């Protein structure tokens, strides 16, 4: 079994990267002469999905224009959040309603994705189906973070995600979810963390460890360091 659909979340305001994001959406910021969105898409294509869906809101016309000059080898569909921004949970649910999939990847493009992640994500996908899961998050030990000030989100033990005071693991911005997790929700502004927290309480939030160096556009200072690295 394999996943054929990937969602890329592109609706955010990117306020921590002001003033750069006052006139340009964060996914279109460039590192080494290529946008971080294109890095993400190229990585997803290597996962051999059939369809990519993007949600947009802030400065969405620039993202639409970006694709007018690109010719990717996979179907890409852009879905507007609507009149109000939907946050990660609402944005994902809106994408579910515009697609035909049970299981799907979700990517945040503010991580610098590259081909080194492909084998890890494929292994995560195999683990997901072999264990008949409905969720799994790709995590990385904060020791591997380019941004030394980035705090951890979770702890990980035998592929089970836990919350403790240590929080040694960071969510990378890649996960696999099943649409049934969203059955109790409607399309409005809510965070996918609401679903994570429910799963945590039931000890049903799954994780998979990445061993790649983690580069993330945390803020303007880190962006400048990544540009110069």
Q: Would you kindly provide a brief summary of this structure?
A:
This protein has helices at 36-46, 60-68, 87-97, 118-130, 193-201, 220-228, and strands at 5-10, 30-31, 34-35, 51-56, 75-80, 103-107, 135-141, 155-157, 160-162, 169-178, 207-210.
Q: Shape, please?
A: globular
Number of domains: 1
The percent range for helix content is 25-40%
Instruction: Provide the residue-averaged pLDDT.
Output: 95
User: What's the name of the CATH homologous superfamily?
Assistant: Spore Coat Polysaccharide Biosynthesis Protein SpsA, Chain A
DSSP, total strands: 11
Stretches with pLDDT under 50, minimum 5 residues:
none
Strand order of the largest sheet: 5-4-1-6-10-7-11
Task: Please identify the structural class as seen in this structure.
Answer: alpha/beta
CATH architecture: Alpha-Beta Complex
Distance between the ends: 38 Å
CATH class: Alpha Beta
Report the CATH topology name.
Spore Coat Polysaccharide Biosynthesis Protein SpsA, Chain A
Beta percentage is 15-25%
What order do the helices and strands follow?
EEEHEHEHEHEEEEHEH
How many helix segments?
Answer: 6
Radius of gyration, whole Å: 17 Å
């Amino acid at each position: 079994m394999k996943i054929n659909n990937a969602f890329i979340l592109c609706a955010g305001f990117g306020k921590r990267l002001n003033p750069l994001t006052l006139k340009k959406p964060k996914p279109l910021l460039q590192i080494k002469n290529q946008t971080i969105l294109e890095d993400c898409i190229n990585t997803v294509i290597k996962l051999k999905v059939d369809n990519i869906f993007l949600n947009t809101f802030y400065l969405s016309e620039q993202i639409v224009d970006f694709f007018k000059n690109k010719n990717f080898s996979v179907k890409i569909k852009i879905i507007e959040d609507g009149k109000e921004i939907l946050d990660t949970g609402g944005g994902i649910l809106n994408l579910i309603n515009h697609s035909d999939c049970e299981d799907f990847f979700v990517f945040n493009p503010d991580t610098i994705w590259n081909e080194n992640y492909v084998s890890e994500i494929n292994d995560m996908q195999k683990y997901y189906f072999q264990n008949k899961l409905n969720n799994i998050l790709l995590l990385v030990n904060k020791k591997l973070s380019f941004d030394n000030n980035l705090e951890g989100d979770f702890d990980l033990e035998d592929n089970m995600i836990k919350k403790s005071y240590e929080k040694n693991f960071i969510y990378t911005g890649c996960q696999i979810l099943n649409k049934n997790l969203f059955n109790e929700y409607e399309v409005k502004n809510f965070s996918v963390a609401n679903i994570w927290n429910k799963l945590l309480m039931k000890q049903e939030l799954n994780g998979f460890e990445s061993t790649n160096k983690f580069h993330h556009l945390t803020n303007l200072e880190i962006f400048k360091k990544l540009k110069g690295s």
